[in-house]
């Protein structure tokens, strides 16, 4: 049986998380703050997800292979917690076992993330403008009822805002580069395109043919699901694949 947690204790944990996030300026510190809060709250994992119609950014202590798979397979489109968070502005407690998952893809997602010990959790969403939603989720290995008064979670909304500001900053670009779906040459071509260079100029700079540059850029567009060059650049910037200058 899980221990009963008093609302006052939970509020203290939120205050500590806010103070740490306000002072932190790097990924390691943000991860540490989220990890400390997760443990203090008696839960097992955390996940930040920032999602729009055409891009996603995450930060989680779930195994790296899951995070990479989550990006590559575009699982945010079928993640039932993300879908619920995009429809509400209120914190909520969820249980995958108790969700009425009709679509086969959603049920498959439940089974796959369940292999990493994720059964239930609490999610605090924030609408951050331009059709984007940021959310912090703290996950449990137990299928339990909400251990907190959900109204108390409203005080955690500020924590999501702080986390969103940090994780959306350029300081996290290096981590996103490590999990980039693009090859180094594709990234290079996208970066120079973002700086206004033509295909001919990029080809001359690297001593390759313009046809080769076009090949790399077209591959990058396909991998990023971009409809054209400007869209490709925007998606690459949103995902932190190339630096903002």
Automatic annotation (TrEMBL):
Pfam families: Autoind_bind (PF03472), GerE (PF00196). InterPro entries: Sig_transdc_resp-reg_C-effctor, TF_LuxR_autoind-bd_dom, TF_LuxR_autoind-bd_dom_sf, Tscrpt_reg_LuxR_C, WH-like_DNA-bd_sf. Keywords: DNA-binding, Transcription, Transcription regulation. Residues 175-240 form the HTH luxR-type domain. SUPFAM superfamilies: C-terminal effector domain of the bipartite response regulators (SSF46894), Pheromone-binding domain of LuxR-like quorum-sensing transcription factors (SSF75516). Coiled coil: none annotated. This is Autoinducer binding domain-containing protein. The lineage of its organism: Bacteria, Pseudomonadati, Pseudomonadota, Alphaproteobacteria, Hyphomicrobiales.
